[in-house]
Amino acid sequence: MKTHKIGVIMNGVTGRMGTNQHLMRSIAAIVKEGGVKISDGEAILPVPVLVGRNEAKLAKLAEQSGIGAAYTTDLDAALADPANQVYFDAQLTQLRAPAVRKAIEAGKHIYCEKPSGTTTEEAYELYKLAKEKGVKQGVVQDKLFLPGLLKLKNLIDTGFFGEILSVRGEFGYWVFTGHDAIPVQRPSWNYRKEDGGGIIIDMLCHWRYVLDNLFGEVKSVSCLGATHIKERIDEQGKPYVCTADDAAYATFELEGGVIAHFNSSWTVRVRRDDLLTLQVDGTKGSAVAGLRGCVIQPYGATPRPVWNPDVDQTIRFYDNWMDVPTNQVFDNGFKIQWEMFLRHVVLDTPWKYDLREGAKGVQLAEAGLSSWEKRCWVDLEALPV
Question: Average pLDDT in the 79-90 region?
């Protein structure tokens, strides 16, 4: 078999997302499957090199991966090795742009987590540098490859909705504060603005690519943020003041007239089908998609409620929805995009999720923060291609 070995520098994968989704469920899984299959006799095999500041953590993670991953605390040495063709970054946001810039200058292809920069200017500058250098570039946009959203995309493509009118997104869950025996489930930096935390900068980057790719380009935003929980307990058991927003209530106006509204919160208790649900309403039908499932209600099966608060409601609204069948096997969304990017690097296959797309996500997050501060609608200008 012909094997294209691609050295992949993975910087910052000792964190939760980097470990679970990018290393274990993506790169390690691809290696254990024998690589990304091009044909019966050809495959692309990623060869990961783990990079970070803590050698002991890296050694443990390399062993856990089960694929004999190499590791180093010397990023410069990893970048100097010509066998390493791809640089991946999952560090804290403030550390990302300088490292990505260094990798671009070293001639490496770039794949990174979002946000791709701390400001739109910084994120867009990375796109321009990569374009000038001629290296391939990509930003993680994992939610597009969730089974629920793939089912939703198929409904859109087959005309199920007729004219789409609106999108309602509900995201979030209760993140424990650490004040009791129940362990917290997110890192403390998420709640410190000075460390790049905040749900607006985190989630509006996601909502940008979801809305742009499924429903229409975001043209303007009105956003209200909040810091509902004022104090939490950090990893060392010490209390700290929360300086970043932990909830955001945003309305988006899309190209073509669709209106979208997303509530994003780490201070909400879930009473819905999943941690993320998207309800899409159209003239011919509606759908509600979660991370993996999707239900629909076509026009002909829509009940006709009448407002009467003086009697018990007789319609069982949940009963009037039908499951969209699972007609295919859905792989991990992060792994799917990794495979696409590796094919793009080796075979130059089509690819749209570049650093400009990453900059657009940062742009929407900045516009959301500006809207909150000014208490007004903020329009978005198109970033040059």
Answer: 98
The distance in angstroms from the start CA to the end CA of the chain is 39
Whether pLDDT at 203 is above 90: yes
Token readout for 201 is 């900068």
Give the CATH class of 144-328+363-374: alpha beta
**For tokens 């999707």, what's the residue?**
294
Beta-carbon neighbour count of residue 233 at 10 Å?
17
Alpha-carbon 222 to chain mean position: 21
Predicted confidence (pLDDT) per residue in 271-302, tens digit: 999 999 999 999 999 999 999 999 999 999 99
Q: Which CATH number among 3.40.640.10, 3.50.30.80, 3.40.50.720, 3.90.245.10 corresponds to the domain 2-143+333-353?
A: 3.40.50.720
pLDDT over threshold 90, residue 69? yes
User: Given the DSSP bridges, would you call strands 285-289 and 294-298 parallel, antiparallel or unpaired?
Assistant: antiparallel
Q: Is the dihedral of CA 233, 235, 236, 237 positive or negative?
A: positive
The CA-based dihedral angle spanning residues 372, 373, 379, 385, taken in that order and rounded to the nearest 10 degrees:
-100
Q: What pTM was estimated for this model as a whole?
A: 0.95
| Average pLDDT score over residue span 90-117 | 96
All residues at 6 or more sequence positions from 132 whose CB lies less than 8 Å from its CB, including other chains: none
